[in-house]
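User: structure tokens for this one?
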Amino acid sequence: MRIKLLILIIIHCAALTSIYAQDVERAAQSRKWQTLLHYRPTIFRSHQSEIAPSDFFLSPDGHKSLIAELRATIEGFKKSPQLACRYPARRRFLIEEMGLKISAVRCEKYENWRAIFVPQSLSLVLASAFFGNAASSFGDTFLRIDGALTTPTGPRNALLDYGLNFAAQVPPADGAIKFAYKGLTGGYRGEFSILPYVQKIQEYRDREERDLWEYRLSLTSEQIERLLEHLWELETSYIPYYFLNKNCSYNLLSLLEVANPAWQLTDSFTYWTLPTDTIKVLMKTPNAVTDIKFRPSLHRLLIARLKNMSPAERKDFLRLRANSTLPPDSHSAIVLDSLIDEQKFLFGHDSDLYPETEKKRLKSLLQARALAPGKTHHIPPQETSHLRVDQTSGSRKISFAAGQTANRGFREIEFRPAYHDALDADQGALSFSEISVLGLRLRQFPEKNKNIHLDKLNLVHIVSMSPSDALQTRMSWMLDAGIATAPDEMAVQVPSGKTRYIQAGAGLSTYLLKEKENLLLFSFLKMNIEHSDNRSEKFRYGPSVQAGLLLRLFDNLKAGLSTEYFSYRQFDQFEDETHFNISEFQLSWIFHPDWNLRGEQRLFNDPNKSEHKITLSRYF
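Assistant:
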């Protein structure tokens, strides 16, 4: 009898062990556990954590084995419940998903950190593109931890919230080449950081003239708590930072998946992650976004206020800003408020850092404002359709073209992985500016032969249009580098060969119709350097001058007209010069958010070498 009972006990224990092992296996493969460890499929279809091997993992194989890390976590909590102070999100997982009983412990350091926040919601904030920093050329995203909607003293002030950022830790000594190499290969530590939201406002909106879009997310208090607990777990860890894909926007989505594992946000991004594309993914996720708020840049606000001044107020404003030594004798609230805000725009919010003359100027303005009656009503800039980031078309584009050059027909196919050109729809991009990376264009002359040849490989192409206005004169600039047919051989049936080139320049731009901002006049002075193995003059260089205008006829119809004069000379033969001119007209019809039809005419020195084509483009 005793033997039978012993056998039954052994069988029962074995069954319980088997069930427990199955529970551990199931929990290890669950979506919640995978998001907590930031596991993603690799190119070999196995799964591995994106967090660098560190003390974040309790198992030596934790970064590559979900079940090994879960077993180590269970054993760790059995030995010491105090482990909850290091892994509060894992403790929650073990209790909720596996039903383990873990004693509550006091975690003073974590509790003090957690007490900083009183989260009621979470928002994803997008800052528009900023060409002054290569890493921000496509925009930036960060999270905002939103406080209570109301406080004992009144409505919540969003400036008192906290921003949650993910960024590469770049040593100041790293030069441009090292910065690019390490950024592309994951050589920098990517870390999360928290700072007051007002600092992000001052950095992005005020100093860098960037608009902000705030997307409030549909997350429960429990989900927000899980995100904060996990954020604490990452305190001493890092994630390798890759500029192109595993960047700030990608890793913020990864953090949101911890909060709500049902959201499949990062699956859409493998080789390329743009901030605007992450917003689109969120918008396509059912019920993920509950509210959208536009926070215009301080510069945009000042321009809007200037437009709403009376002629006398505008004259007063321009008179006082032109001569800062004049006493601020205006009694207009809007004039004085605009002058005070311009001080913040030019010198920042911390008046202690102002030059001495500007400190006195700000003090006199504030004193005059205290005596001026009334207040300046909030004048929001018009939220035109071309500002809506979440309504933008895809950043990738494939184009098919047919045309004629030098009386010969040709066909083209072009692919642009990212991002935008002057005649694309303006949604989510800086109007009339351009930025594209790794664009490829192939051309075929079917009458001559069936061969397809490379017409252009664009490594990087940036045109930063910064229109001058009533507040300041600003410099526009451009950079273009790649491999292409030389500009004076564009209309040649069989070019002598491909040319490696780099072109850089600076200039001015301004809106001719200030109120509508739909007609931009621009000019550039450029320097060009070229190298070709198949031309007698292998190296040549020289300046070029370009002038033109860009016009937005309607939201879906844009046009461009420009002319550029080139002057080249060889490096070893200073007396030999080549001069030529290229004029160009383009008309772009965005007849659908994802489709564009464009006509283009190029005129060269020789009228017989003119080129025209029609292009159909699909965005995705």
